[in-house]
Amino acid sequence: MDTFMxxxxxxxxxxxxxxxxKTAAAANCSEPELLEDHHEEYNKLICDGVRDVQExxxxxxxxxxxxxxxxxxxxxxxxxxxxxxxxxxxxxxxTEKAEVALEKARLSLSVFTGxxxxxxxxxxxxxxxxxxxxxxxxxxxxxxLVMCGAAYDYVYQRQxxxxxxxxxxxxxxxxxxxxxxxxxNASE
Length: 188
Known about the structure:
Elements: H1 2-19, H2 40-54, H3 58-69, H4 82-91, H5 95-112, E1 117-121, E2 124-128, H6 140-147, H7 161-187
Antiparallel strand pairs: 1-2
């Protein structure tokens, strides 16, 4: 009986693993921020947010993107959705939230691309500019919490030209949102 139960459980687990989504490809959208392997909830929230933006339900999109950003990704910092959050917030009429998301995107990308560095001090990490001076912008402490930590050191190492292209694509997405918001503001 004990062996039989183990077989039933193992068989059930195998069946579930075959039908459960495993990768970003299994998500119901195709976005560059989707992650591979074991990030189904995160990926679903991204796809939900994208769908909500397409349906002009911007407040709901904001909720989806904020919920996705709240998920702790153990192998990398969770920052790639700030531009999407900025656009959805802007379209929802939440201009302060849009500005904050854009600023977090800029600072996070600056860390990711190596413009800013995370430096460990006695009281924790601090963002440092290229001149070795502390970054004291209003959101730098919040970005430090997301982007800094010994576990992420390997993430910031450039090991291929493909990595440089990934960084460039992220920066492009950020700049696209920044310019779209600026264009709308300029036309008002």
